[in-house]
Predict the 3D structure of the following.
Amino acid sequence: MTLRKVRADTHLARQARNTSRSDMPQLPLRAFDEPPGPRARFPGELLLRFRRDFLGFSEQVTAEHGDVASFTLAGDRWAYVNHPELIRDVLVTHQRSFIKGRALERAQRVVGTGLLTSEGDFHLRQRRLAQPAFHRDRIAAYAEQMVQVATRGADRWRDGTTVDMHEEMMRLTLAVVSKTLFDADVESESDEIGDAVTDILESFAMIMLPFPGLVERLPLPFARRFRRARARLDQTIYRIIAERRAGGRDRGDLLSMLLHATDTDGDGTGMTDKQLRDEALTIFLAGHETTASALTFTWYLLSQHPDVAARLHAEVDALGGVPTFGDLSNLPYTRQVVTESLRLYPPAYAIGRRALEDYPCDGFMLRKGTVVLVMPWLQQRDARWWPDPLRFDPDRWAPSAVQSRPKFSYFPFGAGTRICIGEQFAWTEAILMLATLAQRWSATLVPAHPVALQPMITLRPAHGMRMTLVKRATATS
């Protein structure tokens, strides 16, 4: 029996439990049972499966145990919450009942207390200070630089050469985030910075170990790489901050806004260099890593679906020149391609929260301290909401074809007060950069290249994405 069939049967069998909280009997909180879930056959079995194949483990647990499933890992209680209504409650309706999950708690060792990792009033203050940099008029100004970066990338490519498309997309999105948000040119440092980002992400498993501070100080190769990588990123970020403080000019980018912003609703103070570093590094990492992964998987999907690629090429050719921010409305199919790619390969594949109190959920009780996982990876591939869910079909998103489906069956940028502050920036960047590159290039996957997934802080291709560049005969120069 397939996991999909198990999931469907389990859903039908437990449908009676999927009632709203207002319909539930008013019982004492402790009267609720804990959710069902897998049990280890030997010590450490679940932890081994969880670490070895997190996505496969998550699919199997939710298929076998239903929309709310829990288990114990290394002394902590974990739970999957896997229904759109329940996800809405966790991320939006009852978000104050939760704080960020363990992954983001541990990520503070890398990015400090920036927007990604901070909590409560401090998080709201920092978000309020940063929000103006992501307003529509600002993004419109950034769009020209996004296209310029993509054009330089297209100029650099050579017909018939084989590249790691993930490395190429990382290089381009790093240049975009550096220029648009920090008005800095770090292209000469892109290889070093890219290597440092990779080392940081590959060290994430170390951060998740018990006593990460102790592990980090051990004289082990991966710990040394982590320390060097963090120091390398700090070197660039603090240098940019120092240059900007010395110049004193408002350049209209995010860093200028953060440098000159004061908390008018609070004590009227600005940010220290450490706070600036934490926010800058957060956006530096998240602002290019996620979009690079999204574009990488989009190139892969296009290579596997020549009919989709042909339609996309026809649309971008019809522009008659390089795209602009005003052309976004003329690129509906390109947007559909990116939207569908994000459905199948969401860079933020899992979102973690920790329960601050006993929390009733779908007739069960998630005890205080439970690590709650809600996963775009699961919801966006769930056959209940997506017919033939593993099929790449951008026409799902055509205006005439969009069916009524639960809102939280698709949430690649999160939700609630912690929704990605750069969502519209990311949409604009992905669509315009893909359109710019696709006007002149297509790419084919190298035969026998293994396409596997590496779920770290973001979802990455485990072995890169080796592709051969093909210059299009109709390319405009």
